[in-house]
User: Which sequence fits this backbone?
């Protein structure tokens, strides 16, 4: 008999949809994969070269659990330069992807009886990781006509004496929206007054459009920094999803606890991936602009097209690489929910995307536009036709 915790969660629906789309492609079906949040760009050459060099130099042994010193120092410099945050080496830990960083945080901070506030819609792994660590997720709904922002009154209303932490994600997966400084300040005020931790997932920090600004909640003052665990990683900013490098800057006691957990679970992240990560953070950064320019073109085209479809509406996202259209206008006849719609579009239009209910809101679907503009054009046409048949 399996452990009880396994029954509390489902496999990651984003990864499940990606696997399904890839399976169909392998069978020769012409599927457009809007499913997974993964840049379609290759990792830049200079980063690959750093890994090859590390391999050739025999850098193939265990490293310190929480990451090699040159990588910790590069992360410290990144936090200083990008976020105005000063951390020491004891306040940094490198893990096997930001998902693993988040899991270590959950292991270090959450336990039976703890409540963790998660604004919804949310990224799929937040509630699952809370549940796997015997704590209770508390969802606070946010609304499309309010740009899916968590408002201070709503946060305040969800806090009890059991609240341990808030998980904040800006720019957001799945909405693609970014918190403005004022909104972050208002959240910080409530969090500080109640003494709860903020886990700030900033993995999409570099993917901003129009005049969006990234503000790390930890940068709002020493008091807030002492209660914030900042999560970041290289998967999105440097197209390094497969390398599995994520990292955290946070209070020394939390980082120490995470390092202890990591020492008994995975040990260090892969040695050569760490060498590549040093190059990613300290080498040339022009790749980012190339990727952003392309994402921006796709974003404008895709959202424009979605809004021209009679039964859909989509807020213009200003971060990450997701569009989150409202699909409730489609529901009624053949299709009555986001899951049914995702299945219908996969069958009828050969377009893979993730239903909103996976993110806690059934009125939406998530489209990852980290795929070529040709594919986006093809998918848009097919979606339009398929929706025409049911509305
Ligand atoms: N946080 C968010 C919001 C994400 O979308 C992802 C995507 N995978 C992650 C964390 C984890 O990224 P990774 O484990 O690849 O670093
Ligand atoms: N974060 C990405 C997504 O939301 C990658 C898949 C995952 O790790 O869940 O699609």
Assistant:
């Amino acid at each position: 008999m399996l452990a009880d915790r396994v029954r509390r969660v489902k496999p990651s629906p984003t990864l499940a949809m990606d696997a399904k789309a890839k399976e169909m492609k392998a069978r020769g079906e012409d599927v457009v994969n809007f499913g997974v949040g993964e840049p379609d760009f290759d990792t830049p050459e200079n980063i690959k070269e750093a890994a090859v060099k590390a391999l050739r130099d025999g850098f193939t042994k265990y490293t310190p659990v929480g990451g090699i010193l040159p990588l910790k120092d590069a992360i410290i410099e990144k936090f200083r330069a990008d976020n105005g945050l000063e951390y020491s080496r004891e306040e940094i830990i490198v893990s096997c992807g930001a998902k693993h960083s988040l899991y270590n945080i959950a292991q270090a901070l959450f336990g039976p009886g703890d409540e963790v506030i998660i604004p919804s819609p949310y990224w799929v792994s937040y509630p699952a990781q809370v549940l796997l660590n015997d704590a209770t997720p508390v969802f606070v709904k946010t609304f499309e006509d309010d740009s899916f922002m968590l408002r201070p009154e709503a946060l305040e209303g969800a806090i009890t004496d059991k609240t341990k932490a808030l998980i904040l994600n800006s720019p957001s997966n799945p909405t693609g929206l970014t918190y403005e400084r004022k909104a972050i300040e208002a959240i910080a005020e409530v969090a500080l007054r109640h003494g709860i931790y903020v886990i700030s997932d900033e993995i999409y920090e570099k993917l901003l459009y129009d005049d969006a600004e990234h503000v790390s909640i930890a940068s709002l003052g020493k008091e807030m920094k002492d209660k914030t665990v900042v999560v970041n990683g290289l998967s999105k900013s440097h197209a390094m999803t497969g390398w599995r490098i994520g990292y955290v800057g946070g209070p020394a006691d939390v980082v120490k606890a995470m390092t202890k957990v990591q020492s008994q679970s995975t040990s260090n992240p892969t040695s050569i991936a760490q060498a590549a990560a040093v190059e990613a953070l300290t080498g040339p950064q022009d790749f980012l602009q190339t990727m952003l320019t392309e994402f921006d073109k796709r974003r404008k085209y895709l959202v424009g097209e979605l809004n021209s479809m009679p039964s859909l509406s989509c807020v213009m996202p200003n971060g990450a690489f997701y569009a989150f259209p409202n699909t409730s206008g489609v529901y009624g006849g053949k299709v009555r929910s986001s899951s049914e719609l995702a299945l219908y579009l996969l069958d009828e239009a050969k377009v893979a995307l993730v239903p909103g209910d996976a993110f806690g809101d059934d009125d939406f679907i998530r489209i990852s536009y980290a795929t070529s503009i040709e594919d986006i054009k093809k998918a848009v046409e097919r979606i339009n036709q398929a929706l025409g048949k049911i509305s």
Remarks:
- The pocket of glutamic acid (ligand 2) is lined by residues 12, 14-15, 36-38, 99, 124-125, 173 (CB under 6 Å).
- The chain has a mean pLDDT of 97.
- The chain is about 45% helix and 15% strand.
- The domain at 4-43+287-388 is CATH 3.90.1150.10 (Aspartate Aminotransferase, domain 1).
